[in-house]
Predict the structure.
Amino acid sequence: MSTAIETPRSTETLNYLNTKYGWKSWLFTTDHKRIAILYLISISFFFLLGGIFAMLVRLELATPAGDLFNSDTYNKLFTMHGIVMIFFFLIPSIPATLGNFLIPMMIGAKDLAFPRINLLSWYIYIVAGLIAVGTMAYGGVDTGWTFYPPFSSTYSRTYVVAAAIAVFVSGFSSILTGLNFIVTIHKMRAPGMTFDRLPLFVWAHYATSLIQLLGTPVVAITIALLGLERIFHVGIFDPAIGGDPILFQHLFWFYSHPAVYIMILPGMGVINEIVACFSRKRPFGYPFIAGSSIGIAVLGFLVWGHHMFVTGQSMYASLVFSLLSMAVAVPSAIKVFNWTATMYKGSIRFETPMLYAFGFIGLFTIGGLTGLFLATLATNVHLTDTYFVVAHFHYVMVGGMVLGYLGGLHFWWPKITGRMYPEFWGKLSALIVFVGFNFTFFPQFLAGYAGMPRRYHAYAPEYQVFNVMSTAGASVLGIGFTLPLIYLIWSLFYGPKAPANPWGAKGLEWETSSPPPTYNFDTPPVMNEEAYNYSGDDTGVHVG
Amino acid sequence: MEQQFSSAQLGMWAFLLTEIMFFGGMFGAYTVYRSMYPGAFQSTTHYMNVTLGMANTLVLIASSLTMALAVRSAQVDNQKMLRIMIVLTLFFGFVFLGIKGYEYHEKWVEHLIPGPHFEYNVPNYAHQAQILFFLYFAMTGTHALHMVIGAGLLTYLLIKSYKGSFSSHYYTPVEIIGLYWHFVDIVWIFLFPLLYLIGAHLHA
Amino acid sequence: MTSHQVVPIKVYVAVWAALSILTMTTWQVALIDLGPFNIIAAITIAVVKMLLVVTIFMHVRQADSLTRLYVGAGFLWLVILLGILLCDYLSRSWIPGGQFWPSGPAMIVGG
Ligand SMILES: [Cu+2]
């Protein structure tokens, strides 16, 4: 197995981290675990970058006057915050890191179905990321992450085409990851790993991958058409020469609404695993949770028009979109009910991942329910393009996805790195993140409900109290996100060695050593029990 | 081997799903504008070279046949026929691209390329017809790009087949590149009536 | 996975002949003024041609149900996209009370 030039240190067993050394062994690797680490490093960079833009936005908004930046700079800041966070952090966050690392292990495979395509998708992501960073270095883009024409196609004086190319290219990375997962989940499962024994994390990623395959190409071609329109001055979306800008919004949201589920479904998958493990119970209603993932993926494609209620879309279409948007709440609610039912009468332990899971459930519920306000036609007219919308999607994306991501990262950190993180600091920062998050975004609901519009660098003085709270909360949130960065890196060097299964969790990934060997399992695993067989195992100690 | 074959096949189908939606965005735009501007869209047929469009459709269908026969030759281990069929498929592909290039040149000469130099002699329809021509170039251009990629893949197959890589036991690349080639054919099957024949009855 | 069965050459040639004939048909039909049925005829013929290519040339006839599911999903999603788009555009000019907006670009109707 080892082709290393250096012989591994004798005290350590061979694993995927120490079989080979040197930058070549990383940049040309086809090991899904190493590619996951490459992704982890790259998305952390973009999370930091997007976070800096967010801090600058919040700083500007601390006072009602537009005093720190002029309006053009402010437009660029929130646009680049959106583009970086959505296309370069949230979309790849859980799938490309935890999903990449864990899916083959969870189903008992050696690797993904197409390891080289997996590496290719990381390189495509990096190329897209470099284009994005280059765009920003040259002066950025100010259209908002939504690239609405005719502003983006005709009037914006910033680097719209370059940013569009970055988004276009990053789409292919996302598509290839999804394609790889789908084939892997269908074709690489270990003996006994039937679909009804599949971990719910894998189910969630299957649904995510479907959206990536079916939605991403539509936004890719739409952004490409927009770029062509801007370069060649031909009108397909330009109303001045017979085009319809609303058509761009249709095609854009055909992807970008389901993209919300690309971002949240993997987070839900993580929460399933954490809740089951730390309640020491089989997930309540397994088939319903699995089915609701697929249901969300399918229904999610039928509701995109709720972003367009005030654009001049047909009111009959709006009625149908409104109704269907309400319907998506059903599978989402099924998940929340099932998580709480799983915890009911469980022997719950309050370790860091579980704290994040609690945060996720609470904040996602608020984010989801405020989504119903926005899906209602009459209230939408009042709330659209206000801070209420901003608060709503940050509750889902940060309160949901980022917390899910952090929870999952802590949960599987011992497996990924072979080291334990410091539990005290983990719990403390989970608490700080939760408090900081609510301080940042809850006031935005109130500001938005009172009528504060989004995307302005100056605002009426009566909104200042909300914005000062929000900015103060953002600094707390910033500390909460910085702490894990420090102690997780610290733990790589000084953390205690992790056992194979520190949480006493079920699942094939816990039955191999931490960190796992290059081909994941020393002997090919067989799944010979039901998924989440926590019954009769209340000690929390699992001999793997 | 069987596992690898079926993984590659499912992977290609999943990729084609993506391709359907990639073209789907443009078909969506086409559907919307055609329903919005029926008169202008019908008037454009006058400027389309229906004969060449027909010819290209037949060429592409023939290339699909040779591609299918190439896969079959690999299945029955007929190496010589495999090479002949790949070469024929490539040949038809290039004929298609040649004809397409000639048509593009015609549009250039007639100032039918969308943009500042676009000229249309039905003034009421100038803007709206330009949208159709934009879609024409976007859709056939994307299609032609797929053909070029397909030609590259076929060249790869040809080289591999000269090295004797394929047999009745292993022909996965032939099969999945074949799927891709047939998909590109299907796109054209829709493009031809939708772009060339919208108002054919008016000009009959 | 059973697509290793070899299809006889004559089946392929027959499909090719059918596709060529259908191409001629689609052209001839387009020359007749059928009103709204021109587009319906064109799409129907194209769908038939597509089905021929998909089932025979692309071996879906011999494929497992998973492959068929994916093929079906692809076309279903395309229909979802086009269908919902049309729902908006076709109903934009409807005015409550049964009056239809006079002809012209539907997009200027607004709220
Ligand atoms: Cu939405």
